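Morning, I've got a small favour to ask if you have a moment. I owe you a coffee for this, so here goes:
>
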Amino acid sequence: MRRFLGGAVLTIAILLGLVLAAAPLALGYLAKVGYEDLLADLIEDLPDREILENSYNRGWFASSAAFEVLINPDSALQTTLPPTRIRLESRIEQGPGIWLTTRFPPVLGRVHTRLEVQGFPVALPVLPMTIDLYADGSGRMDLRVPPGETLPTTQVMGLRHGPLDGELVVSAGQEAVEVRLTLPEAALTTPTGPLARLSDLQFEADQPDDSTGTGRLQVALVEVEDTAGAVGSATPAPPSLRIEGLSATLSRALRDGLLDLRLGLSAKQLATDSMTYGRSELGLSGERLDAEALADLGEGIRLLATDQVAQEMRGLVTAGLIASLAPRFIESATRIGVEPIRIETPDGLALGRLDLRFDPGTDAPSGLTSGVVDWVILLRADGDLELPESVALDWIARSLEPGFEDEFLPISAPTAEQIARQEAQTLLGGWIRDGWVTRRANRVSSALRLGDGLLTINGKTVPLR
């Protein structure tokens, strides 16, 4: 009996040893198949690519792989951008050493990857990543980039950054995804000095399934420098834009081919070179957007950016594109909202809102076509804007200033600013006299209404057909 038990134990030990020895080889084969499938999907989605290297060396307890691709800019676009080069160097662990040292579910494979990207407008550091593949089909990627700096050239900007930490978690069904990213400080640099700085960046995103998701971004401080004004100056100029407490939230939901989007932006303080604002909020939303029509619109916009459409024809082509897609947005009762618009200015609050929607009611024309008259009469809009007159003058002047700089070259910045402010006073005064804008005390306001093909601004009606 003792001999029988000893033989059974020995047999089980031998079988277990064979499993532990053979399993890494089998898993290595499966890892190779999965790796090749992943690259095939990646290559299929890359336009105008050239594979420079694609190798995989499968071992017993570890494997290695290298992949490098060159992505040329879209030949139809009018651009002189260089090609983008992406290189992945990976080492895959697949032995019992990681199975027995991890918690449940066990890690069946661990991939150590170095990602290099060249050809971006910013020189990026090498990104080291570790990917754990779990037995239940889930996965986790960790990104740990130490502090460092890439140097700028005349072609690309440099990047000076603190430690970058990130993680990506994928559920067993590969539908739910969670992303986390933190960066304590970073700066974009040029050969003449820093261009922009940020501190305490935190980003997180949750995608419970393929149809819904939410992303949140928080940055403690953003500063954008005026490099043109700083060149040749003995003392550093103050930033042309400074944002404290920046927060952004984006959510999406896709149901039956219709997309809902929500974007919320806020800042505790926003300072330009001419004015400092307190807490500011802006909300943007899109409801019942036809996802396929949006994709067609994006493709049309891409085409307009190419040399396939003559410059003098782009306005007509744009109008035709919008008119051809409008019936699809009408049928889905698309709605676009801008609310709230709330900005604390030194002279009081600036408040506004805009609601734009298609209303395919019972009075919609039968057999809706792409004709402009057909869809304009179904367009509805309501909007209001009220703000201090001093702020309105500042905004109008700043929008006019670049035009005066181009028209009266050479001209100094103070002179252009003075001319723009005088023109802003003339324009706003004319709008008030003609009734397009209402002035009460030190505030100005205007209201917009659109319906049945009639546009009404501050009580003055303009027919659109």
Summary: The longest strand covers residues 193-209. Confidence is low (pLDDT under 50) at residues 1-22. The first helix runs from residue 2 to 45.
